[in-house]
Design a protein that fits this description.
- Chains A, B: This is Phosphatidylinositol 4-phosphate 5-kinase type-1 alpha-like.
- Two copies of one chain form a homodimer.
- Chain A has 451 residues and is of the alpha+beta class.
- Chain A folds into two domains: 179 residues, Phosphatidylinositol Phosphate Kinase II Beta, CATH 3.30.800; 242 residues, 2-Layer Sandwich (Phosphatidylinositol Phosphate Kinase Iibeta, Chain: A, domain 2), CATH 3.30.810.
- Chain A contains 14 helices and 17 strands.
- Chain A has a seven-stranded antiparallel β-sheet with strand order 4-5-9-10-8-7-6.
- In chain A, helix 1 packs antiparallel against helix 3.
- Chain A is globular, with a radius of gyration of 22 Å.
- The two termini of chain A are 27 Å apart.
- At the A-B interface, helix 4 and helix 7 of A face helix 4 and helix 7 of B.
């Protein structure tokens, strides 16, 4: 029997538990609950969201034997609470999610429990269609998300393009005297795309190296110091794409700062197209699953940053998974998947907060009242000066022309590109061995989510 | 010297005063203040509105002798405060008002003091271009407007079409130890259009008749009981227009109710095109001013109710003043100007509130906790069942075809229309003498505003 982390444990039969509720009972309750709440919402007439709607909590009791409102089920009695139903209905509408699709994806198909779910003690489920992540959150996180909703509404209305998590619903399963709060949000890293390397980046250097234990994983999530060492030249984006990414990060950071949120990260997954081609050649069988298009709006990385009016001309790739086209210092073609995560957790643990104080002091912040601003500034600087690099327009074609078809075509322009980088004072690290390369043989379908 | 009403008075030289500040000094301070605040805003970079922005108050001191930030002036020293500058900049943008135009209209041209400004004790100014109304508000009203801003933001984002007042700015002039708070909003009734009759309607019958004193005025504002007596058949709107008006009123009432606002009215101005033609024939000279188009978006009655996607085909009139085409029971062609006013005042005076309690009890409300909902329901019912009437589609042409040109063409369809009404059980009051007709010879350019 494995060690319990936070509220997450494993029972004698080997099944994951959360606050002693088995994962299967939790999934069952979530599916019954969401079916009911979405169903009853569709019966209510459409109306505008009001300020008060953010504070509403609907509750419905699901007795084991069923009631005139709820079906019988084979779990224990439970209560299902829906937070701010009208507000989240509006958010889902804004993200282009139809009630039927939402209900179908979450409730009519199997929820897949993610095994590699990190040190937060949360359980993560992925919907079968790869669209939604369900995550358990703590009381403080749920409470904070509720407080955040008016600001989240304002941001969405001004900024449909955002790298912030897309929150589709906040619920609570009350069973056996325990409250299990869950949040439904977008899936950042499409399972069907093999991530060759993944990073969780904050812009800090304080203890920001993946642990030895993390490195043992099939798909470790590396951190800032790893990135600085292994990808010292960052990710090359064409001019428009660079501007779009950085503008989005800037606007998102302003909102986070205004809510005094810190400790968030960018989750960054990199699919290396050229490496994938080499692997396909060397491996016995390629992955039979093809990259799938995501259905909701603005939920992929590229949609999240690309302004509606911007003409991205040459960057329209055949890639339907929403990766952002980039190159590494070797000139290899990459698809980059990004999103801002961990925006609720700074309100979770005093211990966590203490860590982030230490980190900020370590990184030069001396005036604690300015912390969120300092955090945001440093985060933006790191992302836009180090992680993402702008390639000037006249050389853009080097970056993009091979995305016209995401195929295993030969890499004719690598040499030009490398020369370009040399002449522009950028040092490609072609010869330097990297930790990342050690992890080339990654298993897909393992995501780490820490919202 | 005339009697003081509230804070408004008249000094020995005959000039209006507000809290002992002369109207000319107040206008001067407003113009200097708005010039400064709009000017300094344009220097700040564009950014998203945050929840905190609603609570910001900027303040700048204008010493008589000038400073390095402010020009010298010939009034006493004063302080100028701007409430929620970033939020109001966003609202103005949403309403399509450019900073330059806003500043120019309010600060570079004369502000016209409206003489007929009602019993509220407020001073009203109209900008020379007829676009803006400036009104003094009490502390409680300003405070309430600030609280309303997040909900107002939400409403605007979901509902650009609204009959609620368009709030463009909230300011405070601090002079001689007094605070004079002013709000800038849209002008509902274009001065260039002669209103043949005006109503302030609440849906109540309690003391809702214009006073004898009001009736002496050149352009009295009649009330509910007057409307019920003199316009018992209401205003005929074509089907789409009726639906648009009522849907807008319904959504606006939902917001007002959610903020527990009561006591608001619809200000309704009616320009009778056929009557205007007859007057033009009989009068020596027609008004040389032509109806002007308003510049800001959604600020006219027709824009406020007409959905962006709705095809209003035949209703596109040459009228640029934004009146809603309607007919009275005689079949005369009308342009109706409406807006919801008085949304801040229920928070003003205990005495006022007491009155509205009495009115609600009189009108059948016994449970005071339901008051805002009761008020809203009754208001909607009165507007959509009594004031505005739907004319069915097959007869729509009767209502609209003569709006193709707002001209003094002959009224060929009146007979048909009257017949239609008879056959549909509607009683045209062609022969009944009305109080309204007594006031046919109205002077233009006199508006009453009670927000």
């Amino acid at each position: 029997m494995k060690k319990t982390i936070g509220h997450r444990g494993i029972n004698p039969t080997g099944e994951t538990t959360y606050k002693k509720t088995t994962s299967s009972a939790l999934k069952g309750a979530i599916q019954l609950g969401i079916t009911h709440t979405v169903g009853s919402l569709t019966q209510k007439p459409e109306r505008d969201v009001l300020l008060q709607d953010f504070e509403v909590v609907d509750s419905i009791f699901f007795p084991n034997e069923g009631s005139n409102l709820t079906p019988a089920h084979h779990y224990g009695d439970f209560k299902f609470k829906t937070y701010a139903p009208i507000a989240f209905r509006y958010f889902r509408e804004m993200f282009g999610i139809r009630p039927d699709d939402y209900m179908y994806s979450l409730c009519n198909e199997r929820l897949i429990e993610l095994s590699n779910s990190g040190a937060s003690g949360s359980i993560f489920y992925l919907s079968s269609d790869d669209e939604y992540i369900i995550k358990t959150v703590q009381y403080k996180e749920a409470e904070f998300l509720q407080k955040l909703l008016p600001g989240y509404f304002m941001n969405l209305n001004q900024n449909k393009r955002t790298l912030l998590p897309k929150f589709y619903g906040l619920y609570c399963v009350q069973a056996g005297g325990k409250n299990i709060r869950i949040v439904v949000m977008n899936n950042l890293l499409p399972s069907a795309v093999r991530m060759h390397v993944k990073f969780d980046l904050k812009g800090s250097t304080y203890k920001r190296r993946a642990s030895a234990k993390e490195r043992e994983k099939a798909v470790p999530t590396f951190k800032d110091l790893d990135f600085m060492q292994d990808m010292a030249d960052g990710l090359m984006l064409d001019n428009d794409m660079y501007t779009a990414v950085c503008k989005t990060i800037q606007r998102d950071c302003l909102l986070l700062q205004s809510f005094k949120i810190m400790d968030y990260s960018i989750l960054l997954g990199i699919h290396n197209l050229d490496q994938a081609c080499r692997e396909r050649d060397s491996e016995a069988a390629a992955d039979p699953r093809k990259p799938q298009g995501q259905k909701s709006l603005y939920s992929t990385a590229i949609e999240a940053i690309q302004a509606e009016t911007a003409s991205m001309g040459s960057l329209d790739t055949e890639d339907k998974t929403g990766g952002i086209p980039a190159r590494n210092s070797k000139g290899e073609r990459l698809l980059v998947y990004i999103g801002i995560i961990d925006i609720l957790q700074s309100y979770r643990l005093a211990k966590k907060l203490e860590h982030s104080w230490k980190a900020l002091v370590h990184d030069g912040d001396t005036v604690s009242v300015h912390r969120p601003g300092f955090y945001a500034d440093r985060f933006q600087r790191f992302m836009c000066n180090f992680v993402f690099r702008r390639v000037l327009r006249k050389h853009e074609s080097c970056l993009t022309e091979h995305y016209d078809k995401v195929s295993c075509s030969e890499n004719t322009h690598i040499e030009d590109f490398t020369n370009y980088m040399y002449t522009n004072g950028l040092k490609p690290l072609i010869t330097k061995p990297t930790t990342i390369n050690k992890h080339r043989h990654l298993r897909p379908f393992t995501n780490i989510y820490n919202i």
